[in-house]
């Protein structure tokens, strides 16, 4: 928060309050978000300009929570039901906002999240592909395998082989 305050002050703004994710300026200070954004980005901060971008980031966060819901709920909600409950907005509206600002659909983003979670689970090497597919609510291991290949460009087997440490066989030891 101090870093944001410093950036704003160096740019000639007078912040009255800086909290996580928000900065309020003195009422006599004209705000020009387009001028401040590059300064904040240069300092390593993401800048959300409008309500659509903010909503998109909130949807992304909710989708991460939805992955946990999928894994733990006995009868998980659909993605659309989960999001409409969370945001009190129609799925159609949420989908349009998300697609416009993220340049991909909610469904495609969720698939990417699921595949990243699958990669993590594969790296632990504690479950079979079928067990992972069940936990991630895929209809089958084959469906997961096909989607994994579409997203990553390689098979689950190839991914697993890359995770294995390169080891020498016993007869190769000197």
TrEMBL record:
<feature type="domain" description="HTH araC/xylS-type">
    <location>
        <begin position="61"/>
        <end position="162"/>
    </location>
</feature>
<dbReference type="Pfam" id="PF12833">
    <property type="entry name" value="HTH_18"/>
</dbReference>
<dbReference type="InterPro" id="IPR009057">
    <property type="entry name" value="Homeodomain-like_sf"/>
</dbReference>
<keyword id="KW-0805">Transcription regulation</keyword>
<protein>
    <submittedName>
        <fullName>Helix-turn-helix transcriptional regulator</fullName>
    </submittedName>
</protein>
<dbReference type="InterPro" id="IPR018060">
    <property type="entry name" value="HTH_AraC"/>
</dbReference>
<keyword id="KW-0804">Transcription</keyword>
<keyword id="KW-0238">DNA-binding</keyword>
């Amino acid at each position: 928060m101090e870093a944001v305050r410093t950036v704003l002050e160096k740019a000639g703004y007078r912040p009255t309050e800086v909290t996580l994710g928000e900065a309020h300026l003195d009422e006599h200070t004209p705000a020009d978000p387009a001028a401040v954004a590059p300064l904040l980005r240069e300092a390593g901060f993401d800048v959300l300009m409008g309500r659509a971008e903010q909503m998109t980031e909130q949807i992304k966060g909710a989708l991460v929570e939805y992955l946990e819901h999928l894994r733990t709920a006995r009868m998980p909600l659909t993605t659309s039901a989960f999001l409409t409950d969370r945001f009190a907005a129609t799925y159609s509206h949420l989908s349009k906002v998300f697609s416009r600002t993220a340049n991909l659909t909610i469904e495609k983003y969720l698939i990417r999240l699921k595949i990243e979670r699958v990669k993590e689970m594969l790296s632990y090497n504690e479950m079979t592909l079928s067990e992972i597919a069940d936990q991630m609510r895929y209809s089958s291991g084959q469906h997961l395998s096909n989607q994994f290949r579409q997203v990553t460009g390689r098979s689950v087997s190839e991914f697993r082989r890359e995770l294995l440490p390169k080891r020498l066989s016993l007869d190769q030891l000197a």
